[in-house]
Design goal:
It comes from Klenkia terrae. It is an enzyme of class 1 (oxidoreductase). Belongs to the carotenoid/retinoid oxidoreductase family. The protein is an alpha/beta fold. Among the domains are: about 180 residues, FAD/NAD(P)-binding domain, CATH 3.50.50.60; about 90 residues. Helix 1 packs parallel to helix 9, helix 1 runs parallel beside helix 16 and helix 2 runs parallel beside helix 16.
């Protein structure tokens, strides 16, 4: 039995804690915030409630595997509801498309071009799921696994961008815009992100989009409870300031109050850049990992409005996405010339769930636009006086221009910038996913789950295999395998 300290109680850390405790290890989870969940946050006021992070579950089998491996099955703990339609898209030309929640329906609504793309995406998924997404990142050995079959290499097309793959299959400009959107799931630019990201719409549409009744924060609470049932100790309001290194390996962590918590293994569910730059000593033997992070492009962030609204919106889907006239201008403003976007894509999550509103004549909207990260002096200073409120007004005006004017229905609003996200979660600059997928080698620059320092492991969206609830949960499974049984 090993003593394991998990730094951070986001989904990745909690899932790793549950698996490791179920395997017989002595696990302690240390979370800086007063509550568990990390980016799976929740905000409530005056009867209105909001998930402040992810708003849907994809690839639910990964969660089912987690719960099955650690105790009672998922369906005994959480109520997952399949969304249908999964999302309604509004394009700049006025077209509206409600995308069904099942693959056959998607193929019918989006047509033969999208169907052909999905067929290719399914082939990419089958070629990469086991050797890459479910396996540790091991440099040249990982490349060798992926390159074992020439047919698989041609299928994955590592030399092609997501935009380039779309050009092979899609002539309808609206479908091209729709495909581009999936690069933003990893905070990336479709012009530079790899074609393999086509697996994101494949997973979403093949396995469905799901909502946790009562809000996705219930998922984090359920995994935390499962970890505790397996024997893990969860300590909140306990910030870690240092990963301790002695004799060439990690020996535990130091807390803000000076307490030292010894460990045989440390699992870090925090931003990888924060770990390598702030939590480890400058002379820690992790030079290559730091250099890889320095070469990677940070992911984009998000600007969020939480809107408490009077009244109900007719025919409002659970998710609504409103696209701009010029999508490339958005990606330029995220990565090339960072600036608050003048005409951003707007994403609205408005669950029809009594847990999110005080009465039947109210709505609670989570509104998100992509945003460059907080980078004073080099990019956007989201703490600049007046910027947050003025940009919130701009986002509301964009919503109004695109047919969802709710300005006269607002009871109150809560504004959250990339700077706020960085402070709340420890993500450097508020980069939601750590590093982006920009560039053919981006996946291999992402920090591995086993760090170069013996005894130190990484889970969560900034580590391999990447961001999003399914991949974060897979990172925990990978780490539990690396640590091994008690």
């Amino acid at each position: 039995m090993a003593r394991v300290v998990v730094v951070g109680a986001g989904l990745g850390g909690l899932a790793a804690a549950a698996r490791l405790a179920a395997a017989g290890h002595a696990v302690t989870v240390l979370e800086q915030a007063p509550e568990v969940g990390g980016k799976l946050g929740w905000f409530a006021r005056d009867g209105h409630g909001f998930d402040t992070g992810p708003s849907l579950v994809t690839l639910p089998q990964v969660l089912r595997d987690l719960f099955a491996a650690t105790g009672a099955p998922l369906d005994d703990v959480l109520d997952l509801v399949r969304l249908d339609p999964a999302v309604t898209y509004r394009f700049a030309d006025g077209t509206r498309v409600a995308v069904p929640g099942d693959l056959s329906g998607v193929r019918e609504v989006l047509g033969p071009e999208w169907s052909a793309l999905l067929d290719r995406a399914g082939e990419i998924w089958r070629a990469t799921e086991q050797p890459f997404l479910r396996s540790p990142l091991q440099g040249a050995r990982t490349l060798a696994r992926l390159a074992r079959s020439a047919d698989d290499v041609r299928t994955v097309a590592p030399w092609s961008s997501l935009r380039g793959l779309g050009a092979q299959y899609l002539t309808d400009p609206r479908l091209r815009v729709l495909l581009d959107r999936y690069a933003t799931y990893s905070g990336s630019d479709p012009r530079r992100a790899p074609a393999a990201l086509a697996t994101v719409p494949w997973v979403e549409q093949a396995f469905g989009s799901w909502y946790v009744r009562g809000g996705l924060r219930r998922l984090a609470l359920a995994v935390a409870e499962r970890a505790a049932q397996c024997g893990a100790v969860v300590r909140t309001s306990t910030p870690v300031t240092r990963v301790l290194v002695e004799g060439g390996r990690t020996t535990g962590v130091q807390l803000a109050d000076g307490e030292r918590v010894p460990a045989d293994a440390v699992v870090v569910n925090a931003d990888a850049t924060a770990l390598y730059d702030r939590l480890l000593p400058a002379d820690a033997p992790v030079r290559r990992a730091r250099a890889a992070l320095a070469r990677a492009t940070p992911s984009s962030s998000g600007f969020v409005l939480l809107l408490a609204l009077r009244g109900r919106t007719p025919d409002l889907a659970h998710h609504t996405v409103l696209f701009p006239d010029d999508y490339d201008a958005e990606f330029d403003g995220l990565f090339t010339d960072p600036r608050p976007l003048a005409d951003p894509t707007v994403y609205v999550s408005a669950p029809d769930d009594p847990a999110t509103r005080p009465d039947g004549d109210s709505e609670s909207w989570f509104v998100l636009v992509n945003a460059p990260r907080h980078e004073p002096g080099r990019g956007v200073d989201w703490d600049a006086p007046g910027l947050a409120d003025s940009y919130a007004d701009r986002v509301l005006a964009v919503l109004a221009r695109r047919g969802l004017d709710v300005r006269d229905r607002i009871r109150w609003r809560e504004v959250r910038t990339p700077a706020d996200l960085g402070r709340a979660t420890g993500s450097v600059g508020g980069s939601i996913y750590g590093t982006s997928s920009n560039g053919a080698r981006a996946a291999f620059l992402r920090p591995a789950n086993a760090s170069p320092l013996p005894g130190l492991y990484l889970v969560g969206g900034s580590a391999h295999p990447g961001g999003g609830l399914p991949l974060v949960t897979l990172s925990a499974e990978i780490v539990a395998g690396l640590v091994g049984p008690a």
